[in-house]
Design goal:
It is built from six helices and 16 strands. The protein has a five-stranded antiparallel β-sheet, with helices on one face. The protein is globular. With about 375 residues, it is of the alpha+beta class. α1 runs parallel beside α4. The mean pLDDT is about 95. About 25% of the residues lie in helices and about 25% in strands.
């Protein structure tokens, strides 16, 4: 964006929005038009938050980038993600109630989520509840003061919730120690930089997530082996990941099975063709270590299917015959391979040892999940 003419800046932005169609919708399976349109709007909304509203290193504020109605980037259904920009060399302070989530990770990262160069992103500094490095004062509140290192770009906060109903989100405040109040008027140059970043989000970033989603969802399904990212990756500290595609017809079920390790957290979740979590507010599209049943032999067996098979460990395919399976583990003592096999839908009762669930019980479970999820983002 070479010009300082606001009219030209706006036209450039509109052109980048128009280009989303080709970057996101290419190769989509039949029946994905409505969800594709919704995803593009959600991704645009997330980009405005990340690249414009919370791209303020002088007067920072934690902004929620992902929630149940603004899903993108293979988000974890058990997580709450917050973000704010920081400036290298500036000093910041984070204070407040850390909540009671299973784990909380705050990290200073390089580069930017907009650029799509996922392998280049680095975690420069981290504080985490799970390993005891999160500083808290005598009252139990967080108290962290830091000077952003030379390559710093943003401060990223992740919370992972095991028990959705019992665990409470953090209430944290971030401030720059030398920020003037009130701030000076917004300058056109500042908006130009933010709109250029938003343009990157809509081009390079959108292409990155679309390509990852297509490659996994259209790939050959099979067993999934989680892996441990390097220590300086921008992943959650101590977390391992596993990804794979699935294919499930209306009269089929995919059986996923593994022996869970000793760990702080594990989960299995589904994502759509567009690499967004499936409808986690209204459907059981994810299960974690507090929600799933373990069979008497120590194995977790899960049925991925379209209709409810009446078993506790059901992942609702939500009408998607193809999509992505995501495995996450935190502080696991080993990384189990997750078995994958397809059986007739009528065989699910014989395959799963976990107890049966009535339609009324399922409805009650879904209602509780929805209330807890909505509450996570309203505090």
């Amino acid at each position: 964006m070479a010009t300082d003419d606001p009219t030209a800046m706006w036209r450039d932005f509109v052109g980048q929005v128009e280009g989303l169609w080709g970057r996101v919708m290419e190769g989509r399976p039949p029946g994905q038009d409505a969800e594709g349109l919704r995803y593009m709007l959600r991704y645009l909304a997330a980009g405005i938050a990340a690249c414009v509203e919370f791209d303020d290193a002088v007067h920072p504020e934690f902004g929620v980038l992902i929630e149940n109605r603004r899903s993108w980037g293979l988000d974890c259904p058990d997580s709450k993600y917050a973000f704010t920009r920081v400036e290298p060399g500036a000093t910041y302070r984070v204070t407040g109630n850390p909540g009671t989530a299973t784990d909380l990770d705050m990290q200073i990262d390089s580069d930017h989520l907009a650029d799509g160069r996922t392998t280049d992103w680095k975690c420069l500094e981290r504080w985490r509840r799970g390993n005891g490095s999160l500083p808290v004062d005598a009252s139990g509140d967080v108290s962290v003061t830091f000077t952003a290192p030379p390559d710093a770009s943003y401060l990223h906060l992740r919370e992972y919730f095991g028990d959705w109903e019992a665990e409470q989100p953090a209430l944290l405040h971030v401030e720059r120690m030398d920020a003037p109040l009130p701030p000076p008027p917004l300058a056109l140059g500042d908006m130009k930089a933010r709109m250029e970043l938003l343009g990157l989000w809509l081009t390079a970033g959108a292409s990155c997530w679309a390509e990852l989603g297509r490659s996994l969802a259209s790939g050959e399904p099979g067993p999934i082996q989680p892996f441990q990212p390097p220590e300086d990756a921008t992943a959650m500290g101590g977390q391992a990941y596993g990804f794979g595609g699935y294919r499930c017809g209306a009269d089929e079920a995919v059986i996923l099975e593994f022996t869970p390790p000793a760990c702080r957290y594990w989960s299995v979740s589904l994502a759509t063709w567009f690499w967004e979590s499936a409808d986690i507010a209204n459907r059981q599209c994810s299960l974690n270590h507090t929600q799933a049943s373990v069979d008497a032999d120590g194995v977790v067996r899960i049925a991925l299917a379209h209709p409810d098979p009446g078993t506790a460990n059901w992942l609702d395919a939500a009408g998607h015959e193809r999509g992505t399976i995501a495995i996450r583990l935190i502080d696991a003592d080993f990384l189990p391979e997750v078995g994958y096999r397809t059986v007739p839908l009528t065989a699910v009762a014989d395959e799963l040892g976990a107890g049966t669930v009535t339609a009324r019980q399922r409805a009650e479970t879904l209602a509780r999940r929805r209330r807890a999820l909505v509450g996570r983002y309203r505090r």
